[in-house]
Amino acid sequence: MSAAEMNGSADVALETDRISKHFGAVRAVDELSISIPRGVMTSIVGPNGSGKSTLVNLLSGTLALDGGVVIIDGVGLRVVRAYDTPNHGITRTFQEVRLFEQISVWDNIMVVLTERRLLPALMQRTTAERRAKVQRVLEDVGMWEKKDSLAMDLSYGQRKLVEIGRAIAMDANTYLFDEPFAGLFPQMIETVKGIVRDIQAQGKTIIFISHNMDIVRELPEHLIVLESGTLLGEGEVDEVLGRSEVIEAYLGL
Predict the structure, then answer these.
(1) Residue 30 maps to which CATH number?
(2) pLDDT at 116
(3) Which pTM does this prediction carry?
(4) Using 50, 70 and 90 to split pLDDT, how confident is the model at 196?
(5) Do residue 83 and residue 176 come from a single domain?
């Protein structure tokens, strides 16, 4: 039984209905329909080029849909705009970390709490509440001691923690993490695991891409396997990984 079935078919955070994205003749995502249960940790796996990052880019509005519908909390969207996703309760991180290099760790968190519209932004004050939130986020991701460091001076793992912290500061309902464990030392992987678990413990929905099968077997309750932009398997982790077609396509056995 899948995590969606365990939580009830109506308790779905995000769905897709035959979404597609083509790059010339390449069908990166090809009429893909999936269902992400609310409050559950879901991992997306598949061979290189299977469409994992393209899918996350479509869900977050980073790429435009060529067809199909993204359904967020029951609302169908044929156009997903990146600047609107916070209004839909969605935030994300990127495989290649994206920070504001020339400003401090503190300001990298503060900037996502700042009013986006020009006039309100000019009038907005740095309140004690916002400062307290930045401190809380940086403490949660273990980066409080680096609050005054420039982003450009951080290690790769520290940069990942700051980007995750920015996502946490958004107070989203659904978090899309593109390869959050890639390139990290074992100790940093454990740190990120703990952060992700803490986010889910607050009732949030987590979706993450990973090539690390040990992590995939350990963390998520729900698994989506892609191949050539199509759905190869979806459901409870061990059951899906045990399917012969998944073993052949993804594990190469």
Answers:
(1) 3.40.50.300
(2) 56
(3) 0.89
(4) very high
(5) yes
Q: Write out pLDDT tens, residues 156-177.
A: 999 999 999 999 999 999 999 9
Picking from 120, 137, 170, the residue at the C-terminal end of a domain is: 170
Q: What is the mean pLDDT of residues 198-220?
A: 95
- DSSP-derived secondary structure letter, 184: -
DSSP per residue over 27-46, as a string? EEEEEE--EEETT-EEEEE-
For residue range 134-155, what is the model confidence (pLDDT) as tens digits?
999 999 999 999 999 999 999 9
Alpha helices of 52-146 — where are they, by DSSP H?
A: 52-59, 105-110, 118-123, 128-140
Task: Give the CA distances from residue 101 to residues 80, 94, 138, 154, 246, in Å, rounded to whole numbers and listed in that order.
Answer: 28, 15, 17, 10, 40
Do 49 and 154 fall within a single domain? no
Q: Are strands 222-227 and 230-236 parallel, antiparallel or unpaired?
A: antiparallel
Place of tokens 């077997």: 217
- The token pair at 178 is 């593109």
Same domain (yes/no): 139, 245: no
Q: Indicate if 107 and 130 belong to the same structural domain.
A: yes
Range of the domain at 203: 3-89+172-251
Q: Which pair of tokens denotes residue 116?
A: 């986006």
Tell me which residue has tokens 């067809």: 67
